[in-house]
Amino acid sequence: MKLFMKESYTSTLDLRETEVAIKKIKDYFESALAYELSLTRVSAPLFVKPESGLNDNLNGTERAVSFDLLDDNGAQAEIVHSLAKWKRMALARYKFEVEEGLYTDMNAIRRDEELDNLHSIYVDQWDWEKVITKEMRTEDYLKETVKKIYNAFVKTENFIIHEYPSLERWLPQEITFITSEELLQMYPDLTAKERENAICKEKKAVFIMQIGDVLSNGERHDGRAPDYDDWHLNGDIMFWNPILECGFELSSMGIRVDEEALIRQLDIAGCNERKSLEFHSLLLNKELPYTIGGGIGQSRICMFFLHKIHIGEVQASIWQKEMIEMCEKHGIHLL
After folding, report:
1. What's the first-to-final CA gap in the chain, in angstroms?
2. Start and end of every Aminoacyl-transfer RNA synthetases class-II family profile domain (predicted)?
């Protein structure tokens, strides 16, 4: 069990105030995000069939929660890990045009997650996706989109501080951009996580780009599935969290693979058998739109803006008995 404790920590809001504030933050940020990126809300599946190829494989090692369907000849279904691939197919099916996009509530169960202050087996996030052209698949367009998302974050912080003046302002006016390789060159003696902490502490808000490919030291900054983000055009939005004293990831996003990037990354990952799956076949045949998209953690946002030390203070989940007892001992009230 991993648990970061801070003797000086006291929640700014009580349990009931917290529940009210969670709703306010989610409602405000959702509207701000939709406005900044021109997104339309849609409904999305909680589960998919594995043979569709639609489930996100994340780092490639996490096990999906699966079950059989009584009224479908025992067919198997999997709880989604994310909707990275489904969204792209939905944009084609709903006939979204260039610079139009969708967003949806994504709920998942990550059974293999190691539980701590930041990680729960329950994941709730806004998944969003937007149609672009092949010519728009550039680093400049990626950065432009990140700035719009960051603007929604800043607006949300302004709003919640107005509602609860006892909360402090943590975000700078602008977000800093840096590649994973540049970060390695800055801090060659640190681990990837330590490098993230160092740059977040200095800049407060950072977009770390180009995650998934091997760096000059022969290692990857972090794992990424080979068939949704283009590893040269993706990244993580991270803030410095003064309470947890670490870099705090709010969003993973990127320009999605085109046919060339998909072939290259499947080959690197040793996953060429996926080319025969429905999603991958459509992409390789150029039957899906080029897109940019990502996921933004709902509980993570609430945890950050309400200055909570544990994600269980803003979402109801399952925790080890020892963690619950230790939290109660230190005045941390889990929902």
Report:
1. 19
2. 111-306
